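[scheduler] slot 2 assigned
[scheduler] job type: sequence-to-structure, two independent chains
[scheduler] chain ordering preserved from manifest
[runner] begin chain α
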Amino acid sequence: MHLNKLPKLTFWRAVLALILAAGAYSTYARFFHGLGASTNLSDRFPWGLWIGFDVLCGVGTAAGGFTLAAIVYVFHLERFRPIIRPAILIAFLGYARVGTTMLYEVGRPIRIWYPLILWNPRSVLFEVAWCVMLYVTVAGLEFSPVILERLGWKAPLKILKAVMLPLVFFGILLSTMHQSSLGSLFLIVPTKLHPYWYSPLLPLFFIVSAVGVGLALLILASHLSARAFGACIEQSILVDLGKAMAVVMLLYATLRFQDLWERGTFAYLRQPTVETTAFLLECLLGVVLPIVLLLIRRVREDPEGLFAAAVLVITGFLLNRLNVSVTGLEGWAGGSYFPRWTEVAVSVSTVAAAVFAFGWAVRYLSVFPPARPSDGKTGEITSARAARELKPATREAELVSRA
């Protein structure tokens, strides 16, 4: 191979290499020296970043897959079909990442397959483990037609298309079950989890917020793919996703604040504690502010404004899951937990690997629909990049018409 054919070293490739190198070292420390040498976990605080961020957040952010599958295949809203493939790809990568990071979190990774043979139907973790394993398989099968099309394998592609609808329904069932089950994990700690975050409605909160963040991540991925790869998604579709995200976030806020009011939780706001600061930051930054932005039509229909609202929804979701799994339990544990750098390196490296895999798929596979010019009648904008390019021309045309 000639040297000029080697990949060019850029700033972001160098950053990716450093992140993966740190993750590789942290992997070595975890599997060869144990949890004690690679984490700040303890018997008093056994769940940390790898559960709060990698599992709870990872599963939730992949909810766009079953949400879009339900919209297209169940409710037959065909105009959203152009984004079903990126949604399924995000779901597959998200669940694959969750399965990978669970190897780091369990005490004996070699036994991670034990739920296959040692059944405990009364355990919520057992149900979550099975749903994650099955949904990774289902999401992989749902996305496999994209790969088969590239390879030109028509026979298996025909078979998959024939069974696609049952696969989609099975995937929706699995996701609905374990999105709520993750919230059920914390129902057994009513005296240990701070009242800001403990509620009998935790399973409902988890699934509603997961739908919201799934839509937000799809908007984020489409926006960044348009900027990086020229991927074309009609802006009207993303605007409609923004409207749906606003409805979901309004539902979540209504349920959450009504529950807080009925349980008298707002009385804790008088206490200047770390939990109060974390709660206010989560609600204002991740719920109130994005709802306000999404309710403003001018912001919602602007690519950059919609992108900012999606980022805020994702930020609030991450804060909520970390507050439930870490901040809300620190008071009971009698001490604070802060992850060791090796824990952070594992989380960041797995996210970087998933982002790299998504970018590779967008570049070499038919994930997004091919670019098509505007017909001049509907005036639809096919990507965020096109929106930015058309804005100056639109302003100039307005000035000319006024003159």
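[runner] end chain α
[runner] begin chain β
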Amino acid sequence: MAETKTLRAGVVGLGMIGGGVAVSMARRGRVPAVHDVRPNASAGLPGVGDPLGSPAEVARSSDVVMVAVVTADQARDVIGGENGLLAGAHPGLTIVLLSTVALPVVHELAALCAGHDVGFLDCGVTPGDRAADHGLVAIVGGEEACVEAARPVLDDWARRVVHCGPLGAGMATKIARNVVTYGSWRAVFEATALAHAAGVNPARLAEVIDTADPEGHTLLALLRLRDGGDTLPEAAGRKIQPLMTKDLDAAHDLAATLNVDVPLVEAARTHADQTLDQHNQIDQHDRGDRGDRDAAVSGDGLHRYGLEIMDRVYGPGFSAGMQDARDPFTDQTVDYLFAQVWARPGLSVRDRRLLTLGVAATVGRPELVQIIATGGLVNDELTPDQLREAVLHLAAYTGWCKATATHAGVTAAIETHTTAKANGAAEARPAAEANGAAKANNTKEQ
């Protein structure tokens, strides 16, 4: 305990982060040696002494030095420059880099320190405006022994020290955290633009969000659903995906109507399957050629996946009519069309459905149109009014005679789905209808 109290600390760079770190330590009785290119940089920092003349002098007076500069070049100069920390290093010195830099720079600086027998930790920090109030989270990467040796000093300025893994892990975690921050800012920008264009005061949007989720749990819901794993549980993904697709499609349609540019919405919409890990079984093999993929994901595994995608496209129970049919045409329908085409992330299921509806309209097959339209209704991707509008649009391109068949199929789908909802079966089409349609239309929408 006495040894941890006698560890000497230093800070190079007294901006918002470095200055706050120095103040937090001083308030806990561990007054750091400091340096900044501005001679009076510590003037407004309570309890912090005057800056020393160089980083080398800070190193001579410290056991753990925090480097809080802005750029990679500044970090290089502070650590390895003519009067840098390594010029005044002594055995047992540990350098903690608080600056956000690229991972190759982290490894470069760590190697430089190792050559001088100096410990090195990469340490992202957040939130910056809480630095002087012992409010930072230290996001650390490096060897366990080095982290533990520096921890007493880190604890004096960080309310929590999170050791994320080996060298570079702290910086990678900080960079990933920044993606969440700035990505959410873009999401707020697009949401506000949509609300404003629709005549909604953005303050009302903020009120709704603050009231519905005051702790901000929704932002990290997907991360928590993973529960420490690399992928989302399949059942959770399958439950979320139809709602996610429906809601993003609604945002896409509203943005198109209001002429609002929403590239983040489009990216989330296009890659919904990827976001929810719903095509992971196939994607993990896409890095090789098709032969490698088919060899790795083949036979019953691929067939089962195709049946799952079929149910995802056309509603629970649809694939039941295909379970026992294993002729070459049916196998290719399941194993290729659904497992490898419908499952691809490049287009949403709704996008592919509309394309397929257009093809069905050109052949004038109302029973095929009904299957396709029913899937859109079951998955809440398309409303009855949108389907009726699609019929009119397709009539202009396919001709009125073929559009009559399209209208008949869409009308049948709407009537059946409406009846099912009225009977309390809103979530799935009756199994008899699904099975009968699958068996009677083995050529369906291909």
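[runner] end chain β
[qc] chain β: The beta strands are 9-12, 33-35, 64-67, 94-97, 119-126, 136-141, 158-165.
[scheduler] slot 2 released
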